[in-house]
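User: Quick one: structure for sequence A, then sequence B.

Assistant: Sequence A:
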Amino acid sequence: MAKSKLLLLTVALCAQINVLAQGGFPLATQVESAVKKQEPTWKLKGKRSSKMSAYFSWETGKSFANVFIVSYPSPETADKALDISKVDHELHSVEIRVFADEVPNLGDRNYLWEGLHNKDFKGVSFKKGRVVVHVSGSSFEVAKRFGQHIADALPDS
């Protein structure tokens, strides 16, 4: 009985993801435009996107900002994904230390983090509506600034 409920839930979730995926990932263009407008001296060095996610890499001088954005089927699913990201080091590509501090007015909720073995790797992860964003940067200031640009470009729901 439990296996059939799990199978049904999995099928329903996959169907919901497929419906969302057919609409594309228009947020990538919004994010790229917002950052270009707010940070004109930064150069876009890399960009990849799929139907449900996007990755960007910007640089200026010795500073960098990397952004990974994922759209989920619901705000509740995005909440769970943000919670999991605090302990899923694969997502950040490094082991991280999460701080209790939050950035005021950045998404629905957020957390600051830094690389456990590489203190030069700093970031902020946040959720807004059904979207989760992970920003790593050469400093907390860079990560928070890019996070705010992206949060401002995202829809509220």
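Sequence B:
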Amino acid sequence: MGLTTGDHPAIQPEQVTEFLEVQRERLRKVAARNVEHERKARNFQDAVDELKQIELHSSSSISQQAGEGKKWKDYEKELNDLIAQKEEQRKSEQLPMHQEAFVRQIATLFGDDEGAPKPGGDDVEVVPVARNSTSQSLKCPIKGTTDGTR
């Protein structure tokens, strides 16, 4: 007879495993959303900085526009256009989501190898880091050297 709490049966190991997998998947999604929010925030900040520089260097200031009865600039539209430009510029520079540092860190914590390159893919090769290793532990088993010489 298994352990019970009141009228409820004890939690089974399969239930714990299932629960943990659901939580891992949630954390993977949170990590990906975090990276996406970070990208959007960087694009927004860069667009604001660029718009600020444009306005500082433009010949027409807000006071001149107001004094001459000209219409106000549509800064919202300009800012949205600059954000879209930044997103488009950075698309080619961005790593695939599974290669982003934070997503890889989460995958590593869970023991996943999602971030590892797939055989035959164009991904960058991932070299494992040997922690707390000495030059003795990194010697070539055949030649006994640590510097790659023969």
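The helical segments are 13-57, 62-67, 75-91, 101-109. The CA atoms of residues 93 and 128 lie 24 Å apart.

User: Thanks, that's what I needed.
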